[in-house]
Write a structure and sequence with these properties.
Strand content: under 5%
Low-confidence stretches: none
Radius of gyration: 22 Å
Largest sheet: none
Number of strands: 0
Membrane topology: Multi-pass membrane protein
Mean pLDDT: 85
Organism: Aliigemmobacter aestuarii
Helix content: over 70%
Transmembrane segments: 21-41, 61-82, 112-129, 149-172
Number of helices: 5
Subcellular location: Cell membrane
Family: Belongs to the UPF0114 family.
Structural class: mainly alpha
């Protein structure tokens, strides 16, 4: 009877392990999301490029911040895509590819968390900077009121504090593992 339990247990464990492949369609969905973000980036670039000669310096800076914001979101997407797939589904067998980023295969779950929160803080900071630059300039009623601005700052600071606390927890965890 013990042999049956071991056989059932082994099959169950193999099934559980194989279930990680249920994540693969989600990563393929992220590839589609990256393509969507690329289309939005190109659309924004074409829009702003056509206005380059009539833009003020502030408008140019806002346009650039918008493009940087989209790029950071795409970077975040790639980090989740590659690191998540390698950490939770399967290793990417790209050792012979000279273009393989150095960080691939080396970002563990803790590193992934830190990269994610850093990207979120950067995206939030850029969005907040864009709003700050628009203060007093929006004549079409799109101006952010004081309450909205306060909440945006609070949310950004919450992201920053979350990042600091995650880093502290990782540091404490690494320190206790050494001792």
């Amino acid at each position: 009877m013990a042999a049956d339990k071991t056989s059932v247990e082994a099959r169950m464990e193999q099934g559980l392990f194989a279930s990680r492949w249920l994540m693969a369609p989600m990563y393929l969905g992220l590839v589609v999301s990256l393509a969507m973000l690329t289309v939005v980036f190109v659309k924004e670039l074409a829009y702003y490029a056509g206005k380059t000669l009539t833009m003020t310096a502030d408008q140019a800076i806002l346009a650039i911040l918008t493009l940087i914001d989209l790029t950071l979101a795409a970077n975040l997407l790639l980090i989740v895509l590659f690191s998540g797939y390698e950490n939770f589904v399967s290793k990417l067998d790209l050792t012979d590819n000279k273009d393989r980023p150095a960080w691939m295969g080396k970002v563990d779950f803790s590193g992934l968390k830190m990269k994610l929160i850093a990207s979120i803080v950067a995206i939030s900071g850029i969005h907040l900077l864009k709003v700050f630059m628009e203060i007093g300039k929006a004549a079409d009623g799109r101006a952010v009121n004081e309450s909205q601005l306060l909440w945006m700052v609070v949310i950004h600071l919450t992201f920053v504090l979350s990042g600091v606390l995650l880093a502290l927890m990782d540091w404490l965890g690494a320190r206790s593992a050494k001792g």
